[in-house]
Amino acid sequence: MPAVRLSAGWVVPVDAPPIPAGAVLIGPDGFVERVGPDAEVPRPPGVPVADFPRAALLPGLVNAHTHLELTGLEGQVTDDDFTVWVGRLTALKQRRPLAEYLEAARRGVAECWAGGVTTVGDTGDRAVVLRALTEMGGSGVAYQEVFGPHPDQCETSLAGLQAAVAELRRFESARVRLGVSPHAPYTVSGALYRAAARWARSEGLPLAVHLAESSAETEFLRSGTGPFAEAWRRRDIPLPPGGRSPVRWLEEHGVLGPDTLCIHAVQVDREDVAHLAAAGAAVAHCPRANRRHGHGDAPLADYLAAGLRVGLGTDSVVSLAPLDLLAEARAARALARLDAGAAVELATLGGARTLGLAHEIGSLTPGKWGDAAVVAIPPGTDTPAEAVLAAERAQLLATYLGGREVFRRAW
Predict the structure, then answer these.
(1) How many CA atoms does the CB half-sphere of 190 hold within 13 Å?
(2) Which of 100, 174, 201, 377 is the most exposed place for a label (fewest CB within 10 A)?
(3) End-to-end C-alpha distance for the chain, whole angstroms
(4) Largest Cα–Cα distance in the chain?
């Protein structure tokens, strides 16, 4: 991995004030060595340089929630009713040949890089994203999904998860981690939640759960009514006891903890927020997908005020395409009335925190991985975070992962 020196009109470290006419030196090991004004960052002989005078250089974006195995399925499920949408997506996935999923994941990784994203938190059940990330030299946490709504399925579902994880372990690396995702309260029994969480922790694997996403999910758990409850009754699956919010349901089954990424977390009240904070859980906030499916807005300001770790996610291309994390940051900013710097932080260091990787990525800091995105900004700007936040996907000029250029826009 060659060393590289990057300079730009602005360097936005995220964990420090923006630097006009700044530079970053990334060593041959892929880690940041120096960050500062261009005149103060060394120019080692033989080290290649890349200069972007009309751009901002910031940490690689961190997408806390993706489904990269679904790349290529955009526009194929358009239903507005979420429960219908879920059913049609499930049927579409079953029709797709298994051989297509790995190539879809590879395309998804490349498309992330083209959008400035260098690390993902991905959930899927086809066991391909971890492999794609490792083969391509990517970065992320791939959470292997497990399903099983009937308590009688618990043992079989857990055994299937364990077999998948055992097979996937060979694709882990210093930059690619494996996790476990008991999918959602309407696809996983309480018994399987408890068993999967206990086993994952015994293996040192982080957890991710789709949680409190829709009003239908809340209705299902609180009163045993609605479309998800009707679907369980048709399949003779015993319903949960009721009277609980999705957050409390997972808490009762030992799922929530500092190693748990709660995806969406829209349908919550103040008590739920307090329980998530007490558990030390993290939230992957997907504002545009939440609105696309009519779920409403998550209480982002309340999450931040409670000290929860929050990152941004795009969800899948089936919901919205193309994946655009800066668009998510703009939506989050408007929702919680954040300043531009705080919104950019959600897309970088915030996402790193949710994945448990803040010591490695999320800011341009000596000792962290040399992941960077280069965004074209207007000449003469004196507010680089504002300019970055306003940027469209076409303004992403280049992406570096551990100092390696993985994307460069042709001009």
Answers:
(1) 16
(2) 174
(3) 26
(4) 71
Cα(161)–Cα(11) distance, rounded to whole angstroms? 43
Question: Hey, which residues does 10 pair with through a beta bridge?
Answer: 20, 56
Instruction: For residue 184, give Cα distances in angstroms to 86, 189, 331.
Output: 12, 9, 25
> At 229, which amino acid appears?
A
Preceding omega of 322 cis (within 30 degrees of 0): yes
Per-residue pLDDT tens listing for the chain (411 residues)? 679 999 999 999 999 999 999 999 999 999 999 999 999 999 999 999 999 999 999 999 999 999 999 999 999 999 989 999 999 999 999 999 988 999 999 999 999 999 999 999 999 999 999 999 999 999 999 999 999 999 999 999 999 999 999 999 999 999 999 999 999 999 999 999 999 999 999 999 999 999 999 999 999 999 999 999 999 999 999 999 989 999 999 999 999 999 999 999 999 999 999 999 999 999 999 999 999 999 999 999 999 999 999 999 999 999 999 999 999 999 999 999 999 999 999 999 999 999 999 999 999 999 999 999 999 999 999 999 999 999 999 999 999 999 999 999 986
> Which is nearest to 375 in space by CA: 120, 35, 26, 59?
59
Has this prediction a pTM greater than 0.90? yes
* Tokens encoding 387: 């300019």
Is residue 197 within 8 A of residue 253, CB to CB? The reply is yes
CA quadruple 240, 184, 203, 156: dihedral positive or negative? positive
Helices 227-234, 215-223: inter-axial angle, 10-degree rounding: 60
